[in-house]
Design goal:
The protein has a seven-stranded antiparallel β-sheet with strand order 3-4-5-9-8-7-6, with helices on both faces. It has four helices and nine strands, in the order αβββββααββββα. It has 185 residues and is of the alpha+beta class.
Length: 185
């Protein structure tokens, strides 16, 4: 089996576990959260410090359904972030980070399979403070609500991250600001 085909399969399996509950968090802005002020600030450090960003006004909670990662909800902005970091399976560690990231790009097919309303608007690989990040922008309908959905994938230090930013479709500028904050722009 060619390495690239193996990485596509491995990446698909890892992503299925990491984002399998995306549709179920469609109305996460309505999820009951602990009362905290909008001044609540969390600094997240992922991939052994390669991906660092600050979230302000979000409340962390478990992802519904027991999926891996954490969900961050900002009720005021009507925005949800799903953030997961996992170890790359041992069998896939022989590949470069770039090869593994390429294998993970099949996420758009998985998203489309789980939600027929999922439509890719743009996709690109960009450099975020020295870290290669695959950035996928899409629109979707979750729980009857139109949303903007960004998916950010990165790989470093035998780990990978899957970050999803889900925003109200009427708040394009806020959505872009949230994505740019994570990308360090």
């Amino acid at each position: 089996m060619k390495l690239s085909k193996f990485l596509n399969i491995t990446g698909a399996m890892c992503l299925a576990a990491a984002v399998g509950c995306t549709v179920n968090v469609a109305s996460a802005a309505e999820v009951k959260t602990a009362e905290k002020t909008a001044t609540n600030t969390d600094t997240l450090s992922l991939l052994d410090g390669e991906q660092v960003f600050t979230l302000q006004g979000y409340v962390a909670q478990p992802v519904p359904g027991g999926a891996p990662g954490k969900m961050y909800v900002n009720k005021q902005a009507k925005r949800v972030l799903l953030i997961g970091e996992e170890e790359i399976p041992l069998i896939a560690r022989a590949a470069s980070d770039s090869d593994f990231l390429d294998g993970m790009k099949s996420i758009k097919d998985q998203q489309k399979a789980s939600s027929p309303a999922y439509t890719v608007v743009s996709e690109k690989t960009e450099n975020a403070e020295g870290l290669e990040v695959y950035h996928l922008e899409a629109t979707n309908n979750m729980g009857g609500n139109d949303v903007l959905q960004a998916t950010l994938l990165a790989v470093a230090h035998n780990k990978f991250t899957v970050i999803q930013v889900i925003s109200n479709h009427k708040d394009k500028s806020g959505h872009l600001a949230a994505v740019n904050n994570i990308l360090g722009k």
